[in-house]
Design a protein that fits this description.
Helix content is 43%, strand content 16%. By secondary structure, it is an alpha/beta fold. Strands 1-11-10-9-12-13 form a 6-stranded parallel sheet, with helices on both faces. Strands 6-5-4-7-8 form a 5-stranded parallel sheet, with helices on both faces.
């Protein structure tokens, strides 16, 4: 891995998902699905996935078959993960409030679940039942009445058994065999089979990201997800094998993934660089991970650990590991990160699967202003206000002054007419 000094750090290392080159293709797919519905989805399934589908919806028999096919060890791990995710996200439940005044007026806010949500679950080079849990469980806790999942099928027209099993365990309402931009279109516009939803969440490739961008406004979306990122802040006492393994855990996701080590120790930097090269050769996905390491990743050496944390703040990574002694001493200095993993025995993969906090996180530096997926993403808030005639009389003049200052006479009269 390339080793540089903090002063030479590339502030654009964590870069955005580039979707501009696929915009026209996606626009055409969206229009096709909007006009032709299921017929377009079936045609795209054959074109892009090599699957000849007679039905888009996954049947109950297919779900039962998937549940039976799951190995006991995987099922146990999935049950542990689901329970931990439920515990963590249940603490995020938000209540409304009502503020009552002595004069009889009151105002407040009510919290209502979004009725219909769509989950996009990637397929292709890997299957991600963990992503089903991370998206569906918060929606279920929020109280969404319909949770619709889409995921691309294989050439046999099947969705991987672990994904279907996770959908069943998490309370997904319906599952459809469709992926790519066409799946986003189906959720946004609705088809003969796929119901229209109010919000679409979940990660995907550049076509999925661009499709979500284009349908935003017709439906809501969670975020535009870019390639996976990890930044490890490590002191000189860290085991370089641990650090290298953590960097590679994200590099193997995608050739565009980004893995960064920031350390105050040049000796550790050199040892980790050597260890990354050694471990790369052991990975089944070596070709993907190597492209990510050689093309998008760096080791940055700082003068001290506080400078290392500041470098992390500048890059605003999706995943931040504080691989240091007493990590709680450094957490207050972290301002920009999607999810923080604290200590030398807290690998990022713990958060991907088992710990409970969400793994759908802001990427591409957007942790500067956005947050991990949560129960909040599946609710909406409505304000309400009640005034008596007497209470309105006290402020009607003020309303009129404000309204006339803005040139809105009808606004002023709406208040004053009630006082005549």
């Amino acid at each position: 891995m390339k080793i540089i000094r903090y002063a030479d750090m590339d502030a654009m290392l964590m870069r955005c998902m580039e979707t501009s080159g696929v915009g026209e293709t996606v626009r055409a797919i969206l229009a096709d699905v909007a006009q032709n519905g299921d017929a377009a989805l079936i045609a795209y399934g054959e074109k892009f996935d090599g699957a000849k589908l007679e039905s888009l919806q996954v049947s109950q028999a297919e779900i039962d078959e998937a549940m039976a096919a799951i190995e006991p060890a995987l099922k146990k791990a999935m049950e542990t993960a689901a329970e931990n995710i439920r515990i963590f996200h249940s603490a995020q439940r938000r209540e409304g409030f009502c503020l009552r005044n002595p004069d009889g007026t009151y105002m407040g806010q009510k919290v209502t679940p979004i009725e219909k949500v769509g989950l996009y679950i990637p397929g292709g080079t890997a299957s991600y039942p963990s992503t089903v849990f991370m998206n569906a469980i918060p929606a279920k806790i929020a109280g969404c009445s319909e949770i619709v999942m889409v995921s691309p099928p294989n050439k046999e027209g099947k969705i991987a058994a672990p994904i279907l099993a996770a959908a069943k365990m998490a309370g997904v309402t319906k599952v459809f065999k469709v992926g790519g931009a066409q799946a986003v279109a189906a959720l946004a516009y609705g088809t003969q089979s796929v119901p229209k939803v109010d919000k679409i969440v979940g990660p995907g490739n550049a076509y999925v990201a661009e499709a979500k961008r284009q349908v935003f406004g017709r439906v809501n979306i969670d975020m535009i997800a870019g390639p996976s990122e990890i930044l490890v802040v490590a002191d000189g006492t860290c085991n370089p094998a641990y650090v290298a393994a953590d960097l590679l855990s994200q590099a193997e996701h995608d050739a565009l993934a980004c893995a960064v080590l920031v350390t105050d120790s040049m000796a550790l930097a050199e040892a980790v660089s050597d260890e990354v090269e050694r471990q790369l050769s052991l990975l089944p996905r070596e070709a993907i991970a190597r492209k990510a390491i050689e093309g998008n990743s760096q080791i940055i050496v700082t003068d001290d650990l506080l400078s290392a944390v500041e470098a992390a703040n500048e890059l605003a990574p999706e995943h931040l590991e504080l691989c240091v002694d007493d990590p709680e001493n450094y957490l207050p200095y972290v301002r920009n990160a999607g999810s923080v993993f604290m200590g030398k025995f807290c690998p990022e993969s713990l958060g991907d699967y088992i710990a409970g906090p969400n793994h759908t996180l802001p990427t591409s530096g957007t942790a500067r202003f956005s947050s991990p997926l949560s129960v909040d993403d599946f609710i909406k808030k409505t304000q309400y206000t009640y005034y008596t005639r007497e209470a309105l009389a006290k402020v009607a003049g003020d309303i009129a002054v404000f309204a006339r200052a803005e040139g809105l006479e009808a606004h002023a009269r709406a208040a004053l007419i009630r006082m005549e």
